Structure formats: structure tokens, C-alpha cells
Amino acid sequence: MPGFFREDHDHFRRTVKQFVQRELIPYVDEWERLELFPDEVFRRAGELGLFAAHYAEDVGGGGGDFWFSVAKSEELAKCRSAGVAMGLLVQGDIATPVIADLGTKEQIEEFLTPAIHGQKIAALGVTEPNAGSDVAGIQTWARKDGSDYIINGAKTYITNAVRADFVTMLVKTSPEAGAHGCSFFIVPTNTRGFSVAKKLKKIGNHASDTAELAFDDMRVPARYLLGEENRGFMHLMQNFQSERAIACTSAVAGAQASLDDAIEFGRDRKAFGKPLIKREYWQHKFVSLQTKIEAARALSYHAADLYNQDRWVRKVPVELETVKIISMAKVFVGDVASEVIDESLQFHGGAGYMEESSVARAWRDQRLFRIGAGTTETMRYYLAKLMGL
Ligand SMILES: Cc1cc2nc3c(=O)[nH]c(=O)nc-3n(C[C@H](O)[C@H](O)[C@H](O)COP(=O)(O)OP(=O)(O)OC[C@H]3O[C@@H](n4cnc5c(N)ncnc54)[C@H](O)[C@@H]3O)c2cc1C
């Protein structure tokens, strides 16, 4: 797309593409079966600069902008395992940006720099058994005790959490204050009182690990408080915007991969004496699906551009107009990706319903997009407010 990707982005994209082709695709079937991909993948992705590209040089990053994250999200989506792609995006783009924004020099050295070099695995802990969309309703509580905090509570559905070295976690520091009582902490997972209560079984994204976490009188030193006390909610809302923007570009690339796979399948598969792809019914359907993908990609790039302009060019907090377009993209892309992948599965007939087919995996995996990082309904709820309805 002219105007967005420069030569350095293209060079980076080629690095990710090679990594996907040589070091992910040959193994994803096995990792899906094992329901975990090796820790080594984080180390290797870090070594290749996948996590660091868009971070500033003074924290150990490559000094690039948001388009590096976009390019990465698109290429990772082509590994045909959304679980692997998600685990890697959480590491570099979801659990760590808030440390770059708010972290002290010591926090950056201890957590961010090792994470973006693939030496420590990161998770983001926000959702709780009793609070998901309504983040301000979280109940995990950090009570001040001298110069430490004592944290009690639980988190659930946390990606990478089974083997994370640390969790960037939102907790209540003023339980009575709602959204204005939330704070971010970075919690090393070897802290006494921290436990992985359960590895969760999912209907898709099998290769990623997802866990429920429990905190039992977990003593966390004040130096692990990230940013100012009680300002965490605002920072989370900022963090959500980049997460949603790259989730959109990743989902569009995933939908494109499914459609491309379907078209290839249809060149060989014959019914009633002709390759399926020669049936006008499917040709017209694919034309319309490709058009929707183009529209979804254009809206996602517009969202990414606004985000990039705010954070990298003007270096300001995310503007409301940006939040609006990102939220719209999240809703629109969700509908398009679901339709494209469902039709791609239908086009495969019985083969599409078989466990081992990549379209079946894509069909299961894409379902998460309309739930994770803000459900479609929550996006519409915020959009109605942003549109002043
Ligand atoms: C595989 C997976 C990985 C995840 N990874 C992480 C992670 O790494 N870190 C993390 O913190 N979280 C993670 N999540 C959690 C995810 O972000 C939440 O599941 C999501 O935000 C929805 O919250 P909830 O599940 O509590 O649903 P709820 O908030 O209970 O929502 C239930 C239903 O109510 C609807 N609803 C809610 N509010 C409104 C409203 N105002 N109007 C209309 N309808 C509404 C929702 O849209 C939904 O349909 C993950 C989830 C999954 C499934």
C-alpha cells in the first residue's frame, strides 16, 4: 500500500516472512496437536528483531514506527496458526508497550529490554473471572503494606501465562474508586503467592497457552508499580488501541490466506466435470469476498495510520477520532473475516470439516477475534458514545 510501507518496512517484512516459512509453517501442525509452541520460538523471534522493531532505540528497539508492527502482524497471520501468531504479538505488542510508555529505567532494563530481545516471556493480565468487558469492575486488589503491595485475586484467559516470566497486570489500588482506582504492576511469575491455577482448554488457537492465574497474598515491591498509582485504566485504554489495530491487520491477512487457500483448492477439485473455481456461483462469491477484504484492509490501514500519526509522528495520547476508527475497524473486520473464512470452509465441502484442514483451523481460530481485546458488542457500545448517540 503506497504511502504506508517504506523500504525498511519491506525489508523487515521479508525477515518475518522467511521466519514464518522456515521456522513456523513446518511445525505448526505439531504445535497445534501439543497445544503449545516451544519457548525457543520467542527467543528466535527476539533474535531476529521481530519484537523490537517498533520500540525506541534507547530501550533496545529498532527505532521504527507502527507500520513495522502492522507488517509483522500480517506475515505472522500466514503461519496458519493464529495461536502462534497471537502468542508472539502478545509478547511484542500487547504486554510490553505499556512498559515502554510508563516504565522507569530499572523496569525497562529488567523487563522490557529482555522481552523485546526474546529473553523473557511476557503476558498481559487484565481479564478476571468476574470482569472482562467491564474492566473497571476488576476485583484483584493491591493493598499497600509498608513499601510493598500485597496482591490478592485472580486473572483468567491470559495468553502466554503458563510459561510467562512476568505479567503486566492491572489491579485495583483503590477498590472503591472504579476506573480511577486501577493501577498497573509488573509481576515476575516467580513471586511467592503467584500461581497458574489452570491451563485452559480452548476451541481454537490451540498452539497458544491460556491460563487462569491466582494471587494469594502476593508481596510485590513498590518498584514494580508501573506509572502512577490509580492511573492504570487510562493507560490500558491507550494500550488497547494498538492491540486492536494490529488484531485487525492480522485478521484481514488471515482472511486473505483462507481465501487464497480456497481458490487454490478450487482449481483442482472437480464437481460435475469442471474445477469448482470455474463455477460462476463461486467466482461471483469470491469477487464479493475479495472486495470486502479490500475494504476491511483499507479501514484497518486507516486505523493504523491514525494510531501511527498520534503516537509516532505527533507523539500525543491516542485521539478520540483514532479510537473511533479503530473500534469501527474491529467491528467491520470481525464481520468480514468471519464471512470469508466460513465461506472458504463451505467451499471445501467435507474436506473443510476435517480436523487436519487449515481452513477448519482458521474457522475455529477466527472466532476469537470478535471476543478478544474488546468484543464486537463492546466496540459498538463505545462507538455509540463516541458518536454522541
Ligand atoms: C483465547 C483468549 C485469549 C485471551 N487473552 C487475554 C489476555 O492475554 N489478557 C487478558 O487480559 N484477557 C485476555 N482474554 C480475555 C478477553 O479480552 C475477554 O474474554 C473479552 O474482553 C470479553 O470479556 P468476557 O469474556 O469477560 O466477556 P463479558 O464481558 O462477560 O461479555 C459477555 C457478553 O456480553 C457482551 N457485553 C458486554 N458488555 C456489553 C454491553 N455494554 N452491551 C452489549 N453487550 C455487552 C459481550 O459482548 C459478550 O457477548 C482472552 C480471551 C480469550 C478467549
Features:
alpha+beta; 4-stranded mixed beta sheet; globular; Butyryl-CoA Dehydrogenase, subunit A, domain 2; binds flavin-adenine dinucleotide; Butyryl-CoA Dehydrogenase, subunit A, domain 3; 389 residues; Butyryl-Coa Dehydrogenase, subunit A, domain 1; 4-stranded antiparallel beta sheet
Walkthrough of the structure:
This protein is an alpha+beta fold and 389 residues long. The chain folds into three domains: 7-121, Butyryl-Coa Dehydrogenase, subunit A, domain 1 (Orthogonal Bundle), CATH 1.10.540.10; 123-226, Butyryl-CoA Dehydrogenase, subunit A, domain 2, CATH 2.40.110.10; 232-386, Butyryl-CoA Dehydrogenase, subunit A, domain 3. The chain has helices spanning 7-24, 28-34, 40-47, 66-77, 82-94, 97-102, 105-116, 232-268, 280-313, 320-347, 358-366, 376-386; strands at residues 122-125, 141-145, 148-159, 166-172, 182-188, 194-199, 210-221, 225-226, 270-271, 274-275. Strand 9 (270-271) and strand 10 (274-275) form a beta hairpin. Helix 1 runs parallel beside helix 4 (66-77), helix 4 runs parallel beside helix 8 (232-268) and helix 10 packs antiparallel against helix 11 (358-366). The model has no long low-confidence stretch (mean pLDDT 97). The structure holds flavin-adenine dinucleotide. Flavin-adenine dinucleotide binds at residues 90, 124-127, 132-133, 157-159, 202, 205, 210, 368, 371-375, 377-378, 381.
